Protein 1
Amino acid sequence: MTDRPFRLPPLNALRVFHTVVRHRSFRAAADELRVSPQAVSQQIKLLEDTLGLELFVRKGRAIEPNEQAILLAHYIQAGFDEFAEGLRRVGKIGQRSRINLNASPYFATRFLLDRLGQFRQIMPDADLRLTTMVELPDFVADDVDVAIQWGFGGWTEFDQVLLLRDIKVICCTPEMGRGLLGPADLLAVPLLHSVLADRLWPNVLAHLGVVGAPQRSEIRFQDAATMRRATLAGLGVGLLSRIDAEEDLASGKLVAPFGLEVMQGMPAAQIPGFYLVLPKAHRRVKPIASFCDWVKQEDWAGVPDRGF
């Protein structure tokens, strides 16, 4: 006797479930889907009845997906990606040459823009749309095909390739630098943090052998340009990217009290970088695959070839 085939839940119930998991809220999901919270609740109950298990822990008005829901959400996201890819491939949109790219603002201005002409030589008909959101985009909601993201490479649900390490240098104004005789003195001055890397300063301090917690208040910034401006303004000690640091050291506006190689010897997992990130299904689109191949082959640490 053969097992009966598994009956899939209604697609609408899966779509509602996926939206609820993203928002952690029935009401927010209802607003996005433009239905009532009661309709959302009914679809979730239908899905739970079909599967024979509960998917959310309800705490008053708040809800949290349980372990089974989190696992299911990953598979549903992969399924929706496949649906979208299939529609692109068989419909007119599949014939387009558009590439929706989101790049870290710093990577875009410091590395990418000077080299894009080379890619246009390879694919002159490519319609490249560039956005510069700091955080990793929602590839579906933000309509992004591929991203170049700053971080530590923890996006396990996507394809990711390290393009370039973002080596940081401890920098400050000359006036502030006169009080930094050793790494331990960093605990007595304001430290400028990235909101995307809470552990970066603690890891650097530990690498330098500093024990203890900073005694001054901290300031957090979302992007590298603002961090640099704050360092130049004397608001605190910043961790600047190597290119920025060398420019400001050469002009005398900043100093590097502990040299340019403070990150030397740190574990690779603690050093940020720029990563090519995209859903696996997106690689099947020829223009996107061509762009990814070009990005991976490019020497981002070298001087760009502007001979185009």
Protein 2
Amino acid sequence: MQNSNFYCISSRVENSGKLYGCFKIGPFSENQSLTFANSLRRTLLADAELHLHPFIFLQIYGIEHEFSSIQGVRESVLDIIANLGSIRFQKIQPITKPKIAFLNFFGPGILQAKHIHLPSGFKFVQPSQYIATVEVDGVLMFKLFFSPHWFQTEVKRSKLKNLFLIHPVSIIEKVNYTIKAEDPMLRLRSNASIFFEVWTNGSLHPQKVILNAINKLLLEIFPYSQIISKSLAKASTLPFADNLALEKLLNLEISNFYFNFEIYLFFKKNKINKIIDFLNFVKKNKIDALSAELKNFYHFIFSRKIKMH
């Protein structure tokens, strides 16, 4: 890619609460645009870690199983679980620990999403979203447990009874892209740019989603540069072989890289501010203790033959 650019062309909030964003990436030389666009689209649609809601567990007062019925409530427990699963939440702050939302609703009335008392850091995309109809003699009481992906096992092992898992839904609704040549008269031999269109359900802005996907894609590809470098050149001819460039890389701030919030917490907890801090940490600890994303980052750094002394 030559003279790389990434910027937003347009964005809007649609009537249904969905978010739309169009982004220009490029220009790329020759057919590289198609290769990159396909890879990025597949990453967006296939990688669950990029676009799933936090795991949500439901506990309904007085209910033992999902096939039960609730007196005075028109919907069955299965219908309520399905309606709760369709609610779209927007995270104002990243989830670092489990949080609880609760509801005590007395009939008669129509229960909507706005009646649920959410914990701090959450808000509804559509507060008027329908959940259930409660009759005069009906009472519906439940709790929602929001947990990060890494905390799912701990919640399942807890002593809380009658927990129902509300399966997370994809935040990404649709992804399209168009490739346009900088000079249409030259067709395939011309530099081309990618115009990426992303629709989300309103929980995340399309720009954050696409930046996460680009970061994930690059971290997956970088480790292979080590294998390619070995076959094409000797260690002495690799990039960063001179001391000045090596010193600049080692002292590069971690904040220059795009990681998720949990990894930034990991860096802060272990006082890792620069790449050299990260390499020193790996030297003292086993690499197996790192997450998959951090392992890829580590292999990317070492693909340049950086050795700690």
Protein 3
Amino acid sequence: MRVRNIDTFYWVATLGSFRSAAKHLNLTQPAVSARIQILEQDLGVEVFQRDVRNAALTLAGRKLFPYAEKMMALDQQILDSFSETTRIVLTIRLGAAETIAFSWLPDFLAYVGKVIPGIAFELTVDTTNNLRNALLARDIDLALLMGPVSEASIKNQPICGYEMIFAATPAIACKHDLWNINDIAAQRLLTFSRSSRPGKEIQTLLSSSCEGPLNISTSTSIGALRELVCAGYGICALPKIIVSEDLKNGTLMELDSDVVLKDISFTASYVENAPTRSIVETITSHLYDYLEAA
């Protein structure tokens, strides 16, 4: 019985379909089916039901799955034990929200590269909603996002939080000494997408206190929002860390306002029973050390 067939069984069972497992393993679907057939021949039982749309486990498949989890974990433990001498490069699929990617992530990845030899990252920068979906689909191993992810299979570790502020160019900022909610609502506001947590909170905050339509421009790209506000297109509601350099050099000014925005919090989130759990937890531990020292 080959380990690769157990590996294939694990991913079909975990992802719920032969198609998803094939995509994850970079195989064709017929190749995945062939491996499962060989495994079933070796065991003398069927491990997946053939009369259902998704890859539902049979009784024998449910019995096999805990052993498959242990084999996957053992494979990872062997690599971890020889991390200082192995020439194998372990690739971790890392997803990060743009706020983190634009702040400390590059320096942290350089730091991890020094303290954990033989590790590489396949980096995805995306919205929190997309990162959450990718994590649940097992398309990424570790997500640094606006969490927590409310799923039983996901472990969430709080890592950092950021202050949200209103900011604008000096020409706009000088219009009021103290900006109240009506002053802000009268301007074009640039902020997170409407489907995001801060985007929804800002929309609710303004609509509950102001009459008439709101002029809110949103984007999934924080970089684009920053460029727009620096060009004088409106005022922004963004994490202060994103516009910190613009505030220092005078391109933007923080608005003095009696409107309080909620801070945004981030978590390191990962699948609790995934084969990569051990190395992901090691990375997360180093992340805590890095952020404390920063």
